[in-house]
Task: structure prediction
Amino acid sequence: MKRGRCWLWVVVFVLIGRASAEARLASQLSLSVGEEYTDNVFFSAQKQHDLITVVTPTLSLIYQPSATSGSRFTVDINAPAEIFARHSELNNIGDRLSLRARFSYPYSRRLSFEFTECLGRLGQARNGGIGDVRRDEGSGSGGGSGSSGGFGGGRGQGQSGGCGGGGGFGGGESGSSQSLGNEGELVTSGELLENNFEASGRFLTTPNLSLRGMYEWRYVSFIDTGGRETSHAGEFEATYSRWRQHNLRARYRIEFLKSRNGETDMIHDVDIGDDFLSTQQIRLTPTLTLSASTGISLATGGGKFRLGNKSDVRLFKLWQTAAFEIGMRRGLTGSFGVGGPSFTTSFFSHFTISLTRRLNAFVAADYSMFDTDEEDFNTFIAGAGFSYNIFYWLSANLAYSYRRATPEGNSLSSTSSLQGKSNSNTVFLMFSAAFDLWPNLGLGRHLNQSLPLSSSPSETP
Result:
């Protein structure tokens, strides 16, 4: 009997050891140190300039249970420390704290799941936050959470505290100036806390028919000024691929948005038809691509009904060492607690170029017009910068950004930081280094670039 138990424990330990051997874990620590000057640290009509020292440690973990399963779990945590030369009361560690996680689980060849989570916090300052400016290396799903640190997702109409969305519920991807700042910081004040969660599943019923379902929950708490916004959304999509160049699609999204003013709105988003109601890409030349999509969005709430067209048009040009994108996007988004749902129209452009093997540069701009039931406003963000790879694990970055927010009429609500036209100029110099922690300790083999240097168009606009 004892000999049988011994053999049983031997088998158990062998199985555990085999499972542990198949699992793969990797971790990396990146450290960014920089100086930032801004002439409007609170982004208000009364400018106050400051020089800020920013130190940002970022811990990234990647876990794969099995080398053959395809499952993947990633976590990205950063907590910048900011030291203000003129406003010592703003000195902090973690005011721009963010935590991002993503779990992908292919249950079978036909069924797969994905879960994303993002928790972020934003302090009182509105200096732009160079500590969380890092390149997206993944691609999100749906509304996506995250804009940096390797957990890319479609950027909503603004991000706050390190999460995608930032009050911009229902927003689409920007793809232009996400590393220069965001609209949410321009029309909010005080500390914010944000949480985004998304769960989605995709099922291939037949070789030609696939079904996708998604649930999304977003929450923003305006800690200093009071109030909160919550959003619950569900989405269902069916795609039928019958011909090589045609995909028949039917997509429906419903979202329940409780705005900061206590009003609840129901938002419907519908796409039905062939590729002309989804996404149509036309290769004008081998290096010039035009993509367009259109659909219908409507919002109901408070006895009001709003119906409008949503669209996304992009022109992308690719050279051997450079890429240029320009486009227009319109659709229902949030308004960062200003006035509930907004039919937002954005014009954006983005140019990146590799000047040498080590030196890269970019120029980007984004102009957005927010049309709400209560107060309308527009924002403009533009900037340019350089990134130089000193070593494979160390880079230097120099960038400039200009941000402006303008309310339509006299002013926004008293709880908004935008009381009249406001603008700011920001210059920052930053050094970023990466260090591998596990399985090998040493200098980082893959460094997250600090500037948005994408070289190919998004698969979906």
Q: What stands out?
A: The chain has a mean pLDDT of 76. Residues 2-22 form the longest helix (21 residues). The CA atoms of residues 296 and 309 lie 5 Å apart.
